[in-house]
Hints:
mainly alpha, 4-stranded mixed beta sheet, 23 helices
Amino acid sequence: MLWLAVFLAAVLPVLIWPGDVSFTNDEPRLLAIAWHANQSGWPASGGLYGNFGLRYGPLPAQIYQVLLSIASDPIALAALRSMLCAGVTFFSLLWMARVLVLPPWFAVAIALAPQVWYFQRVLWDASFSIPLGTLALAACTALFQKPSRGRLLLTIGSAALLLFIHPQNLPLAGAIAGAVLWHARDALRRHHRAVLLVLGAVCALNAGYLVFTISALVERLGGAIRSGYPEGQPRALALLAPLLGGNLLSESGFGGKVAPAEHLPAFWRLAAGASLLVHPLIWSGLVVAAGQAFRRWPARNEEVSQARVIISQVALATLGLQALIFGLMRVPAEPQYFFGTFAVHALLAWFAVDGLRWKQVGRGLGLAFALGVAALTIGGMIAIHQHGYAPEPARVPLQNQVEIARALNRFPDATVLTDVPFYQQYPQALRTLRLLIPARPGEMQPVSGKRVIRRVPGTARLELADLQDAALTPGSVSVSVTGLPKDWQPPPAAPAP
């Protein structure tokens, strides 16, 4: 009963008000890819295009293909995705805690971190790295505590699948692969047929993507990839990015996303300060992991010692590879670029909570961090529900957009007028919803006319209004509201004047 209560405390927050999730740019394009792939009857062969003209992996779109076959309603889809991601993440955290004999209560603190809560809910692609990466690290940890065929296959399979989400997963997948090849050679020899079968299935499912990506990567090695992110930081600073992985676990600008500043709770700054304690915890955990990696840290028994030694080596190797990639590519230390190493940074903070035992310093810092992030997540959740998102960057809750899409189903119009900058910039949001929410038989009225999407006066909500009842502002433009075509890409940004 206690474990059920703990599980609900960590997972339930992502399921509250699922209609409040953001649905803006990449999310609708990804769902459109999945919808069209389902119409064709084949698994998606790729995902969204990234900063360097390379297409990200097809696994997120394939997951959405499965979820769309269960529920096409966007709100239900958001709830399913949130439950899947949060459930897998928390289960994996508890699995690691049990194997490594870590205090399980800190798993709740990690799951309640505001950025983690936010990205577990958003219908994005790269954030699938959080649950799958945590599962891969947990399976790897269990494998070196007590080797078995199932744990070996789960470790290899989940690490391989990470490569078909986003390139930021390369460090963790590479470190796990190295640990398995070095420390689990006997198990690989015993179960080589099953391992080859798993890897063959993963590659067969994504054969087209592999061929396209490898050829495109070779073409771009000397150009955009070598120069790195166009607005990235200097390489010397980017090398230090692994030290800032706590940005995903702290407030790190979360308040600027969720609501206008005047609607944030009074305790926000205090709670934000408490969330920053994760940084010294991670840095202290690095010291603990370094000691464990070279067998210099005491352990409670030999099985835990073996698992802690190897998983500490995996953690250090992951951060080393991440520093190398971030340095070469000039990757900025934004929270979304730490999805792939989320599990490692969470584990390092956990090591500090468990290992800094002088006067219970570790547990004290961990408890203060837990209270801070819980307050931020609950306060942010309520602020979004009551007042909507902050005006910059523009976001509109999914529930409000679904209402507009359902209202459009009553009319045959292919375009509408709008003075709302959000839909002028992101027409794909509404156009994807038109795919997911088709008009029911007899619902559409055979009457065309001029209609406008506008902001309801005095509120943050949007509505579809008849042009006769709404004043048209000078900034209004016509936008398409037909279903988003397959592989639609946003128009290039206009050059700066």
